[in-house]
Design goal:
Length: 407
């Protein structure tokens, strides 16, 4: 796939790139562009650098807004997918190509709609790449009900599988080395889901399995974008689907690694001690809607559950469905086995993918309600500790997965 390029300064070789993937972000892209430029000037002054907007040929003029943004003397390039080609993954594939073409040692990616980004983000995501790290994952201050897909699925499952504690494997802002860009570009595991919103979990999983040094960058500020914080009871959307399917596909690809991995180990954190730690914005949760969506799924999918889940899990789900909203709880071992059973079902092709997701989504709403009920009176830090305990239960339950996977 060829891309269209605008490179007014004729830049051909740099040390560090900041990439900003986008689609229809004309109203928001100027701020992260300016903050990226300030970060490069302040924290990488002796290096050559460029900011690249990787766009999906946005009809709203995103590329023009990017080129008009203040960049404090840092050159800018736009690359765009051909008309009709969409997807964050496709944008990042173009960035991987540019990193290799320009022989860059490091690349930092930030999202185009960020309102909370500061120059420190560029420093903390980029500096480790000049200290022998190959992949840098973000660590934000987040509201306890923000990022339920990461909290319920991406973090506990990927940590349990691959044995690395990477708190935000689908964070959206990260850094990678030139060497890692080459690994990403040559990977045979690219598919349609990765080309869309499966890209973040795909990059994190490949990085963890490459045996190259990885770390997390503490960013201090909460992640705030131009879109309002999302009530976890709202529809999950395409990101959920692309992420889950990519996670399940990669389980098949890396089964020789995860089936032999026991327990997890911490991942180094870069940038602790930054001064501007702020509280995240509040998120309201519609518990009634979460409860209703779980119960609707339970009643409509019961026959499929009997195909999918072990008899023990079936009985547990039936008991959970009998609980009223205020006493609703999905025990973590049950949730872990639900995810394991779904992964096994996908691996064995027992259900087609869209049907499998239809089954999983209401159960995810149930787990979210359970998490809210458990953590309502907790501080963000206490809720984070509760989530760490959840992950430990996933690791303790893993023999169930490896046994059933191999049957």
């Amino acid at each position: 796939m060829k891309f269209q390029e605008e490179n007014p300064s004729g830049i051909s070789k740099v040390d560090i790139i900041v990439g900003i993937p986008s689609y229809n972000e004309a109203g928001g892209i100027a701020f992260p562009t300016e903050q990226a430029a300030l970060g490069l000037k302040e924290h990488f002054p002796g290096m050559t650098s460029v900011i690249i907007n990787c766009d999906n040929n946005s009809p709203d003029g995103t590329s023009k807004a990017f080129m008009n943004a203040e960049s404090h003397g840092i050159p800018k390039i736009t690359v765009a997918t051909p008309r009709g080609i969409r997807g964050k993954g496709n944008n990042l594939k173009n960035l991987f190509r540019k990193v290799l073409d320009m022989d860059a040692k490091a690349a930092v990616v930030v999202e185009a709609n960020l309102k909370s980004i500061s120059p420190v983000w560029i420093k903390n995501l980029g500096e480790p790449l000049f200290k022998d790290f190959s992949f840098v994952s973000p660590l934000y201050v987040r509201h306890k009900y923000d990022g339920t897909i990461a909290n319920n699925i991406a973090y506990p499952l990927s940590r349990c599988l691959y044995g690395r504690r990477v708190r935000q494997p689908i964070g959206g802002d990260f850094g990678f080395s030139g060497q890692m860009a080459g690994i990403f570009l040559k990977s045979p595991l690219w598919d349609e889901d990765v080309s869309q919103f499966g890209i973040d979990i795909w990059m994190s999983t490949i990085a963890v399995n490459e045996a190259l040094p990885i770390c997390q960058a503490f960013l201090g500020k909460p992640k705030i974008s131009t879109t309002k914080p999302k009530d976890p009871a709202l529809d999950v959307g395409s990101m959920f689907r692309h992420m889950v399917i990519t996670l399940f596909n990669l389980m098949h690809a890396f089964e020789n690694k995860w089936t032999h991995t026991k327990w997890s180990k911490p991942t180094a954190i870069f940038g602790f001690g930054v001064s501007d730690v702020e509280a995240p914005p509040a998120i309201s949760v519609n518990k009634d809607k979460l409860y209703m969506k779980f119960r609707e799924g339970f009643h409509s999918q019961w026959d499929v559950y009997r195909t999918l889940f072990s008899s023990e899990n079936l009985q547990k789900i039936r008991e959970i469905a009998s609980l009223d909203i205020d006493h609703f709880e999905m025990p973590v071992p049950v949730w872990a086995r639900i995810l394991f059973d779904c992964a096994i079902c996908y691996h064995r092709k027992i259900l087609d993918r869209s049907r499998l997701l239809e089954v999983l989504i209401p159960l995810h709403y149930g787990m979210t309600l359970s998490f809210v009920n458990k953590t309502e009176g907790m501080s963000h830090q206490q809720a984070e500790e509760y989530l760490e305990d959840m992950c430990l239960v996933f690791e303790q339950s893993k023999p169930y997965l490896t046994y059933r996977w191999g049957q």
